[in-house]
Amino acid sequence: MPTETQPAPTVLTGTLLKAHNQGEVAIGYRGDLPPFSFVPAPGSEPRGYSIELCRSLAHAMAEAVHKPLRIRWVPLTAASRIPAVEQGQVDLECGTTTSTHDRQQRVAFSPLIFVSGTRLLVPRDSTVQSLRDLAGQRVSVTAGTTNEQILRDLAAQHRVPVTLVPSSDHDASFSLLARGQVQAFATDEVLLYVRAAQSGTQRELYRLVGDRLSYEPYAIMFRKGDPAMAAVVADAFHEMARNGEIERQYRQWFMRKLPFLGITLGLPMSTQLRLSIETLASNP
Question: What is the pLDDT confidence band of residue 198, given thresholds at 50, 70 and 90?
Answer without folding.
Answer: low
